[in-house]
Design brief:
This protein is an alpha/beta fold. Helices cover 48% and strands 11% of the residues.
Length: 375
């Protein structure tokens, strides 16, 4: 790999934008030694030559709200590390598109002949998502997997017979990315019904990096733990009604004082606060929330309408839509006053929902709705 030392590969494509935390995550882990520390922590390796790591990024990416965070090649693996503050079940679909573009670029850059008789050697793909949103992962797990195959239309609906074996249970412990079961070639070449398994799969491994989760992983990567503490302090302050700018600046000062990301924050203090403020596009967030909540609320309202009458069901759906948006803003630590202003909603209504959310953090939108209806 010596001839590639110091190189940074770039591919231009169109893919998304992300929320404020993502840019900060990229900025912190865009240094080779720091990124190698994170790679070692995930894989329980001890590589120490950061020059072996080659950045392999996609520039100007804008596609359905997606932009990659950090992509690189090291020791024969092609890695995509993505940060998410909102869990998205479509990440494997995005991963499929992303890796397809990356392999296309890799083949061209290395002058590989895909039409030849010799089997090509390609870097082993790894897709890891670092999640620190408010909503817990399924069953409050520290680790889950998202699979592309879950998005495929069931083979039975295509009039194909299927005897597909059930997927193995997802590992929910702090599992190294390198622990991967690869079927032996004999099993791979065994004939099976065409519908037994899809010809494509992409697995996104999701780690909860909110402070207090995945402690073994955090212990192996001090930088990741420090990042988790910083974001946790900001979120806690905003949740308590402190404006974002004030919360971010105070958290940065506290972290510098406590030796948390000290060198990075001392050097980039104003830049970090600017990232937190400028890259959180509230208008775009409201637009997406209104669209998504309309679909959710409209569906729920129609379901109720079957039992209670269509007109009433649609009214229920509208109310569920409002509840869904306010509930999500509470989970995003947006102060109730700001939420009411942004949605042009009655402040008392928003405060009432926020109070219920504080008192019952595990309630769903429907639980909130039923409670309001009873009162």
């Amino acid at each position: 790999m010596g001839k590639n030392k110091g190189k940074r590969s770039h591919t231009k494509h169109v893919f998304v934008q992300k929320k404020y935390r993502d840019a900060l995550f990229r900025r912190i882990f865009n240094e080779k030694p720091v990124l190698l520390e994170l790679y070692n922590a995930l894989n329980q390796t001890d590589y120490d030559d950061a020059d072996e790591l080659i950045f392999y990024t996609i520039d100007d990416v804008i596609y359905l709200g997606y932009k990659n965070d950090v992509s690189f090649i090291v020791r024969g693996t092609l890695n995509l590390y993505e940060h998410q503050s909102t869990l998205n079940p479509n990440m494997p679909i995005r991963g499929l598109i992303y890796f397809g573009k990356q392999y296309e670029s890799y083949i061209k850059q290395n002058n590989l002949n895909i039409y030849g008789k010799k089997l090509l050697s390609l870097p082993f793909p790894q897709f890891v998502i670092f999640y620190n949103g408010v909503e817990p992962l399924e069953d409050n797990k520290d680790y889950i997997e998202l699979h592309l195959s879950d998005a495929f239309i069931c083979a039975e609906s295509n009039h194909l017979t299927t005897n597909a074996a059930p997927r193995q249970p997802v590992v929910t412990t702090d599992m190294p990315v390198s622990d991967i079961d690869v079927p032996d070639s004999a099993a791979q070449n065994t004939s099976s019904p065409i519908s037994t398994r899809p010809c494509l799969e992409c697995t996104a491994r999701v780690y909860n990096i909110n402070y207090g989760h995945n402690q073994e992983l955090m212990a192996r990567c001090r930088t990741l733990e420090d990042y988790s503490i910083l974001i946790g302090r900001i979120s806690s302050s905003v949740r308590n009604g402190i404006p974002l700018e004030q919360a971010a600046d105070a958290a940065v000062q506290e972290c510098i004082r406590d030796g948390i990301l000290q060198d990075f924050l001392t050097k980039h203090r104003s830049e970090v606060v600017g990232m937190l403020l400028e890259e959180f596009d509230m208008d775009e967030y409201i637009k997406m929330e209104r669209r998504d909540s309309y679909e959710d609320g409209h569906e729920d309202g129609l379901a109720m309408g079957l039992a209670e009458g269509l007109a009433e069901g649609l009214a229920e759906g509208k109310r569920l839509e409002q509840l869904h948006v306010v509930h999500n803003m509470f989970q995003k630590s947006i102060p109730a006053e700001n939420c009411a202003d942004l949605l042009n909603e009655n402040t008392d209504f928003v405060n009432k929902i926020y109070s219920l959310c504080h008192a019952h953090p595990d309630w769903s939108d429907e639980d909130l709705y039923n409670s309001l209806k009873e009162n």
